[in-house]
Amino acid sequence: MSVANDVDIDSLRAQIREFLSSAPRPDGLRNYGPTPTEADIEPGRSWHKYLAEHGYAGLHWPTEHGGADASVLHQAIFAEECARADVPRQLAITAIDLVGPVLIAFGSDHQQQRYLERIRLGDDIWTQLFSEPDAGSDLAAVRTTAVRTQSGWRVNGQKVWSSAAKSAQYGILLARTGAEGHRGLSMFIVPMDAVGVAVRPIKQIDGESKFNEVFLDDVELRPDALIGEAGQGWPIAMMTLGRERLTLGCQAVAMFRLREQMVDAARERGLFDPVLARAMARIWSRMWLLRFTWERAIDAGDLASPAFSVLKLMTSETDRDLADLATEVLGTDACTAPASTGDARIVHAMLVGRAQTILGGTSEIQRNILGERVLGLPKEPR
Ligand SMILES: Cc1cc2nc3c(=O)[nH]c(=O)nc-3n(C[C@H](O)[C@H](O)[C@H](O)COP(=O)(O)OP(=O)(O)OC[C@H]3O[C@@H](n4cnc5c(N)ncnc54)[C@H](O)[C@@H]3O)c2cc1C
């Protein structure tokens, strides 16, 4: 069965819901979010392959590369239904959502042939090697260098917060090939098993180790490791960051489930006093505002729409505040919640909530973007 673009929304949703509910789930599959842990890779890969075989991997990719050329609405409905079914939407987002579109837009024929189908089928995991200890919000300050040699490029530097780097076969690397500023940046493909690449996992607050430090020490790359032209790294990086926003839709649905768990937890504990009821009503109205803004952005169908900037800010802060409130409802039970229970899921959501307002651009940076680019306020002094 493949997915058509010309069916109405209700039928499309029903078709996807039916597909997901009857799809065989590999043993050990859980909804691990955008990045798998090492234990998630095997079930996540089998699941991804099943999605790919049925036309649901790389929905947004053009048909000539095995995608479905799906509209933004279509992609959003699939993301929402995956969240509702509590399954991941893909093996890992970096390859299919970020690297795929980059290679389709900027990659050479050789790069497209070599990497795209493997990404679509979930054969390879990729990591995004952008952030550095002194270059996160200010990404143009990247100091990792790639110097041209007779046989290609030599890379030296350090990256940090690189999701899935430990299990990745390839990295998409932003490195400096020229003068300071964004015009001196270029984008490369790095085989993660190349000599001189060292990966050190970082232990997260929730106990998992999804992201890593990556050290690049005299790493030799072939000439065809460069994506696009030298000096074209910045527009390529901006394209990947824009795509990250669309994945937020999944969270909007997950929030409604978390809110139900919170209400159940409050009911079980007989906690409905006016103060808690008011706090719950406030977060409930924020969730609906988010939902309506999300629908407006989808209607516009344009990933460059300013509504998506508002969404990143609203989603991450609402998500964090909801999980914080739900944890308050648990009270001291939060410290002893047995694994795999509803209470443990609430605590996990609260811990993961710390990351939401940082990844993909912090809340402060989103507010700067909204102030300057959407509201036309004066630029921050630099
Ligand atoms: C879960 C998670 C996964 C991630 N995965 C990846 C990945 O796979 N690959 C990758 O490359 N990166 C990844 N990141 C890194 C992420 O992109 C950066 O953490 C983020 O861009 C912020 O950069 P920073 O951590 O260096 O903070 P900084 O930029 O140092 O910011 C520190 C604080 O200062 C504030 N600040 C900075 N500049 C301004 C300003 N101009 N105005 C107002 N306030 C400002 C920030 O908002 C923040 O509160 C991930 C992060 C997380 C949390």
UniProtKB/TrEMBL annotation:
GO terms for molecular function: flavin adenine dinucleotide binding; oxidoreductase activity, acting on the CH-CH group of donors. It holds the Pfam family Acyl-CoA_dh_M. One of its GO terms (cellular component) is plasma membrane. Its cofactor is FAD. Residues 231-375 form the Acyl-CoA dehydrogenase/oxidase C-terminal domain. It comes from the Bacteria. It is an enzyme of class 1 (oxidoreductase). InterPro entries: Acyl-CoA_Oxase/DH_mid-dom (IPR006091), Acyl-CoA_Oxase/DH_mid-dom_sf (IPR046373), AcylCo_DH-like_C (IPR036250), AcylCo_DH/oxidase_C (IPR009075), AcylCoA_DH/ox_N (IPR013786), AcylCoA_DH/ox_N_sf (IPR037069), AcylCoA_DH/oxidase_NM_dom_sf (IPR009100), Mycobact_Acyl-CoA_DH (IPR052161). Keywords: FAD, Flavoprotein, Oxidoreductase. Residues 12-119 form the Acyl-CoA dehydrogenase/oxidase N-terminal domain. Its EC number is 1.3.99.-. Residues 130-219 form the Acyl-CoA oxidase/dehydrogenase middle domain. Belongs to the acyl-CoA dehydrogenase family. This is Acyl-CoA dehydrogenase FadE17.
